[in-house]
Amino acid sequence: MTTKLSFTLFLTLIVLLLPSSPEARRLPFLSKPSHPQNNIVSDNYTYQIRYFQQTLDHFSFHHLPTFPQRYLINTDHWLGPSPMAPIFLYCGNEGDIEWFALNTGFVWELAPLFGAMVIFPEHRYYGESMPYGSRDEAYKNASTLAYLTAEQALADYAVLITDLKRNLSAEACPVVLFGGSYGGMLAAWMRVKYPHIAIGALASSAPILQFDDIVPLDTFYNIVSNDFRRESTSCFDTIKKSWDVITSVGRKANGLDRLAKTFHLCGKLKSSDDLFNWLESAYSYLAMVDYPYPSEFLMPLPAYPIKEVCKKIDESAEGTNVLDRIFNGVSVYYNYTGQADCFDLDDDPHGMSGWDWQACTEMVMPMSSNKNSSMFPEWDYNYTSYAVDCWNEFGVIPRPTWITTEFGGHDYKSVFKNFGSNIIFSNGLLDPWSGGGVVENISDSVVALVTKKGAHHLDLRAATADDPDWLVDQRASEVKLIKGWIDNYYTTKKGVFNM
Amino acid sequence: MTTKLSFTLFLTLIVLLLPSSPEARRLPFLSKPSHPQNNIVSDNYTYQIRYFQQTLDHFSFHHLPTFPQRYLINTDHWLGPSPMAPIFLYCGNEGDIEWFALNTGFVWELAPLFGAMVIFPEHRYYGESMPYGSRDEAYKNASTLAYLTAEQALADYAVLITDLKRNLSAEACPVVLFGGSYGGMLAAWMRVKYPHIAIGALASSAPILQFDDIVPLDTFYNIVSNDFRRESTSCFDTIKKSWDVITSVGRKANGLDRLAKTFHLCGKLKSSDDLFNWLESAYSYLAMVDYPYPSEFLMPLPAYPIKEVCKKIDESAEGTNVLDRIFNGVSVYYNYTGQADCFDLDDDPHGMSGWDWQACTEMVMPMSSNKNSSMFPEWDYNYTSYAVDCWNEFGVIPRPTWITTEFGGHDYKSVFKNFGSNIIFSNGLLDPWSGGGVVENISDSVVALVTKKGAHHLDLRAATADDPDWLVDQRASEVKLIKGWIDNYYTTKKGVFNM
After folding, report:
1. What phi and psi values does residue A474 have, to the nearest 5 degrees?
2. Which positions make up the signal peptide (chains A, B) (predicted)?
3. DSSP class of B433
4. Residues 37-66, chain B, touching A (beta carbon < 8 A)
5. CB B256 within 8 A of CB B246
6. What is the ipTM score, two decimals?
7. 3-state DSSP assignment of residue A98
8. In this structure, what are the phi and psi dihedrals at residue B90, rounded to the nearest 5 degrees?
9. Residue B264 a catalytic site member
């Protein structure tokens, strides 16, 4: 206790003494969705848009304004309350809910098979679900952002679905949760925390173990690196070499201008670090969306885009220097359509990001990069500088051990063996987030579905004609398990009624 | 949704239009413990008193002061971290933790048998565990009281035990939860919400179903009434008759003075209602503490005190009128030692009660009294007048459906059948709170231990030479089940280590 208190005081002192600190590395989570890159529209996904007046703070009793939580709903295929037809609820994550709905075809395709209702509630503080009337007001300062937490979001979903079921006299209809990435974490946590609300959860690419020291801190960047090495050792080597080249060019007279020109930047390059971030992001996101067919999830991309990036890097004309090779490579990510003339390293440097707030409060996911196994520059995780950054950006000090206290993680195998049921953890091993995921079966009904060549929540995407067999099989397993949960629920219900 | 919003608006209007409302009946929970009636001191219960700097709001990120949470700890019998010796944690409820510790002998007696550490953390806003520096500041208004909720209390226990285990390198030591009454609810809920923190819970006399309309609203007062009828029909009849007599006497000239004299009140009687409350409290508490041996839990009392009360009522000299009989009866409760010369109906009319705040926010337990089955005056549950009272007293509007949304209850059999394990719900059927308790086995490891002649969390009290066999048996079953949880935990741990 004394230790904890002193450390907080110590940290506060550091924070006050060091107003300007070295930039701590924040994780490359799917923070992009708040600015959808493209509009996928499909006739399969029709829904009504509704709003629910939501309690801002579920866990204390201040007088606070409610806020309109947006949710998408489709009841076209729902068989209604009397046959206890299921309700599929996607746990909205850190972005506009329509964007997630359009990229989660699996749920829409499943609904008619199960006679299910589909609901996509939006996560508070994202999209249109803004407390205090507007995004500007909601994101004004630490006091207004205070209620942007995972626990509050889960309570939102619980309150919303309870109210909705009551209004439809559908209290007995089983709810199945879906979610990908952070949404997958929410789905798994919701199944554990609200077993009376939902009978099971498909948590896709949910890195619920990426906290504290549960998994090795270098796992994320090692997986990204291995994805590149797997395609080509020389590609991996070129990328690994490039950081020193950038640093040494950047230090020369007019070096930053030369780098800006090489990488076709629209504006000035202020430091090599900005270029590092831009490149690191591209590699990390490429690893996440290394899908087996052309996709437009974050960016328009070809099938297995890492293969294409490495082709460009490896197959540039002989004599092409390292930086030009790198530029050719990342252009596959940033400019696959060829429409960009130049690149902005940071679209909106002054906009506060909701995910950054979450990372600065409870979603502290420690990461490092290991020079022996990674193609990235080496760095260690430094909580102090991370916390200082958070203080400078938001005026908040993180609670780095809170998530594992609230949701567990350290001893997850023992816990799930004796408690809990009906969770699918699906992971693709190309996805760097799989390093923080559950990739082993734990019990009969807490199971891991792992695909060697899958990427970030690939299974939640709509079926395509190009789906490889292993993906078709994975989805079939998921359908079978979900059907089992629902059947078992009906059996139990009948048993209870007859008691 | 629209309905909900409008109802809140409607309620707010009512609240504003009706500053003075008829007093809604608040439940007779164990709100007394904040003023211990007596000091039981036992050599068996030695402990250190420690304080933990606790986060005031676990679920949002305001800048709030921490507060010192008091906890009692005894490690005398603990076998330490390397044999993974267990930790017994009593979930402190609405009162001074020392008082609960002294009245929960079972846990102290168990500790040496299991080589266990014992911890009694105090519930926030009770005893010495006061936010904002003092009770006066903590209870100042709705803003300072805002964080007095069950969810925050559970998070306190989770944070405290996690920190304590880390400091002792005891992360692998299994935690078993204990709790009685509201503390039993907390223990059961904690097992469900924090399965990674505790491997099982003994929830004694925990009315987790006394919410919404899960159980019939008249169940509590029916059980109290049956406890009296069971002893003597004429006793039941006399009590049932007495309300009309009080009302009619009270209406006469100097009637209130006559009542005050009959009941030996120290001060003036302002209305018959106050006398009703005083008598109803006595009967309800008598039902709770109808223990098979003399006890001093709430008041010094003889064995099976209801039998004694009824004796006094029935066996008063022939010709004794109804009110004198009633007075003779309740004197067993209020004045068993014979030391009181007169009675104060309300010890502290201006003191805000923590439990009243909880009842006015989330712990809304609807109750009514049915003229056909109850010995009490008839009344219906009226949420509106309940809410108006809460507004007038605390400036807060309750959230009557929140507890079942957060913790479940409506479909608890189906839920526990498929999810969760290692909970004992123990109940004595004399206890009126057993009406809101789980009294049927649900699965192999979510079990109900019910005693016909038990009262309010009798099993948690220290063993006495007067314990009836059924009580000895009940405690033996509890020990066996707890031992099973711990053994199973060790087996699982070994399995996981060997994987």
Report:
1. -60, -50
2. 1-24
3. G
4. 50-53, 55, 57-63, 66
5. no
6. 0.90
7. helix
8. -90, 125
9. no
DSSP string for residues in B203-264? EES--TT-STTSS-TTHHHHHHHHHHHHH-HHHHHHHHHHHHHHHHHHHSTTHHHHHHHHTT
pTM of this prediction? Answer: 0.91
Compute the C-alpha angle B411/B413/B419, nearest 5°.
100
**How far apart, in whole angstroms, are the C-alpha atoms of residue B304 and residue B285?**
12
Q: Domains of chain B, with CATH numbers?
A: 3-212+403-491 (3.40.50.1820), 219-354+364-378 (1.20.120.980)
- Which residue among B52, B194, B492 places its CB closest to the CB of A1? B52
Euclidean distance between CA atoms A215 and B392, whole angstroms? 52
Could you identify the residue written with the tokens 């990908």? A180
pLDDT digits over A311-340, tens only?
A: 999 998 889 999 999 999 999 999 999 999
Residue in B424, B422, B413, B383 with CA at minimum distance from that of residue B400: B383
- Dist CA A394 CA A385 (whole Å): 14
Please report where in the chains the tokens 């709903």 appear, as a residue.
A73
- Do A430 and A292 form a contact (C-beta atoms < 8 A)? no
Cβ proximity of B346 and B274 under 8 Å: yes
Question: What tokens were used for A348?
Answer: 């909106």
In this predicted structure, the answer to whether residue B493 has a pLDDT above a threshold of 90 is: no
Candidates B165, B161, B221; CA nearest to B194 is B161
* CA-to-CA dists, residue B439 to A499, B65, B413, B433, B454, angstroms: 14, 42, 11, 11, 13
Chain B hits for A419, Cβ within 8 Å: 195, 419-422
SS (H, E, C) A325-367: HHHHHHHHHHCCCCCCCCECCCCCCCCCCHHHHHHCCCCCCCC
End-to-end alpha carbon distance in chain A: 50
| Strand ranges inside A30-186, DSSP E | 48-54, 67-74, 87-90, 117-121, 175-180
Residue of B21, B129, B181, B295 marked active site = B181
